[in-house]
Design brief:
heterodimer; A: alpha/beta; Methyltransferase, Methionine Synthase (B12-binding Domains), Chain A, domain 1; Rossmann fold; five-stranded parallel sheet; 58% helix; globular; B: alpha/beta; TIM Barrel; eight-stranded parallel sheet; two-stranded antiparallel sheet; 12 helices; 12 strands; 45% helix
Chain lengths: 217, 297
């Protein structure tokens, strides 16, 4: 079989098995072999993470598998990215995202996972962390000329922060400048519609496809 | 288990309380505050909520300490309050307890993850839970209720820590999602394994709360009943939060919730309460339907 294909297949497997060392090893090997790092990302790593997402949707994979796969991907990208810039082939930035967990909420695993996945899919991420005051989220979005604001809430008590974000954008007359995506365990499509968010990311995989749709990628 | 509580659970369906967070928000809790701060800042409000639940007919109410573990408080830089928050919470509840009522010390997740997903070991989390349980017991609670655990391993650490802290009864609930393949926690724990392992660690009552509405909880109770001989506790949400007329509401009404509570009892639940979106009215309507002889047992 084509050695290139072996590498891509191996990368996909490494993500599915959560084998960080293997992901790093194959990434280094791919560079030694002169394989275009963009190819490795598009044909090896990305299919791997997408398969992980599919298994999550089917109820086969759970949070630990998702987190570890994302870490494998980040580790692999750390190896590949310098080579990308060297070649002048900067991964095309398809959008700028300000992301954070709503004020009062310290949960961040889902949010961080979404940030990682958006990043590996070509978005420039400004991750504000957890417990972010809504006004800060808005101000940073303006400063960073973001295309998309992603706000997560894991508690029913902090969900209203998502509503306030949208209200605040309206008050400042800048609602149209940003797309807003909401997510988090108690959040639903109905809630997203009620507060007039632009999108609802039910899980990490959907968050990525929705983000791409919102920026027109 | 303490004989009075054990007798009660044996004799008839037992009524737990409803949501605390929902009630606090209705009374002005802002998203910048930790619910537990109100044990110190507004104890009279907490007292009022406990009273409302006892008056509505709850047999057992829970202290306002869901996020009262050192690690959870630390994330808000409130860990210096861990002792005060837990002891105060217990004292407030005990002050309004009727003679036939019980006060449970509520313990929720730390918000941190065990390795390899997070940084912590089971032993470290067990210490945190040991501390919180000890404080609640010092404050005078009569049982420990561990709930909304989404990681079986963290739940086990909580049961072990509580077990080390006290001989009082320890209840443990996980929160399950309904996936295509059945009921699992977000960490991938299944129902049979979870209930078995919680019992092995020393929980005397096991069950589930949060994430699910009543129809789903009904299905889950049936599954749990098949997988344990221990008493089962079940507390469903009043559905997923919605926005109506600018307010956060929950779709399942008190009447509908109460009629489902009856079904949970028939399906094998022994202790029934309410989670997110429920309130004293829910408990009041549930009381006659839950606090009676358990059918077929």
């Amino acid at each position: 079989m084509n050695r290139k294909e072996d590498i891509f297949k191996g990368m996909k497997e490494a993500l599915l098995k959560g084998d960080k060392d293997e992901a790093i090893r194959l990434s280094k090997l791919s560079l030694d072999m002169g394989i275009n790092p963009l190819d490795s990302i598009n044909r090896g790593l990305t299919p791997g993470i997408q398969q992980v997402g599919k298994l999550w949707e089917e109820g086969e994979y759970f949070l630990p598998q998702l987190v570890i796969a994302a870490e494998c991907m980040k580790a692999a990208l750390k190896v590949l990215e310098p080579a990308l810039s060297e070649k002048g082939e900067k991964k095309q930035e398809i959008g700028r995202v300000v992301i954070g967990t709503a004020e009062g909420d310290i949960h961040d695993i889902g949010k961080t996972l979404v940030a990682t996945m958006l990043s590996v899919n070509g978005f420039e991420i400004i991750d504000l962390g957890a417990d972010v005051p809504i006004i800060q989220m808005v101000n940073r979005a303006i400063e960073e000329k973001a295309d998309l604001i992603c706000i997560s809430a894991l508690l029913t008590t902090t969900m209203p922060g998502q509503k306030r974000l949208i209200e605040l954008l309206r008050e400042k007359g800048i609602r149209q400048k940003f797309k807003v995506m909401v997510g988090g365990a108690p959040v639903s499509l109905q809630w997203a519609k009620d507060i007039e968010a632009d999108s609802y990311g039910e899980n990490v995989i959907e968050a990525v496809s929705e983000a791409k749709r919102l920026v027109g990628a | 288990m303490k004989s009075a509580l054990q007798e009660l659970i044996f004799k008839r369906g037992v009524l737990f309380d409803g949501a605390m967070g929902t009630e606090l928000i209705a009374r002005g809790l802002s998203s910048g505050e930790a619910s537990e701060e109100w044990n110190v800042k507004h104890p009279e409000v907490i007292k009022e909520i406990h009273q409302a639940y006892f008056q509505a007919g709850a047999d057992i109410i829970q202290t306002n300490t869901f996020g009262g573990s050192r690690l959870k408080l630390a994330a808000r830089e409130l860990d210096n309050l861990v002792r005060e928050v837990n002891i105060q919470a217990a004292k407030i509840a005990l002050a309004v307890k009727p003679p036939e009522g019980f006060v449970a010390g509520n313990i929720g997740p730390t918000g941190q993850f065990l390795q390899p997903v997070g940084r912590f070991t089971p032993a470290e989390l067990e210490e945190v839970f040991y501390e919180q349980a000890s404080l609640l017991v010092e404050g005078g609670v009569e049982l420990i209720n561990i709930e909304t655990m989404y990681d079986l391993e963290e739940a086990k650490a909580a049961v072990r820590g509580s077990r080390r802290a006290t001989e009082l009864p320890v209840f443990a609930s996980l929160t399950f999602s309904q996936t295509r393949k059945g009921f699992y926690t977000i960490m991938g724990n299944d129902v049979p394994t979870s209930l078995k392992e919680l019992e092995k660690c020393g929980a005397e009552v096991v069950g589930a709360n949060c994430t699910l509405g009543m129809p789903e909880m009904f299905e889950l109770v049936k599954l749990m009943r098949q997988n344990t001989d221990l008493p089962i506790i079940a507390q469903a949400n009043a559905g997923a939060p919605q926005l109506k007329d600018d307010k956060v509401t929950y779709p399942i009404s008190a009447e509908e919730y109460a009629s489902y509570a009856e079904k949970l009892l028939e399906a094998g639940a022994d202790i029934i309460g309410g989670c997110c979106g429920t309130g004293p009215e829910y408990i009041r309507l549930m009381a006659p339907l839950v606090k009676r002889e358990k059918p077929g047992r």
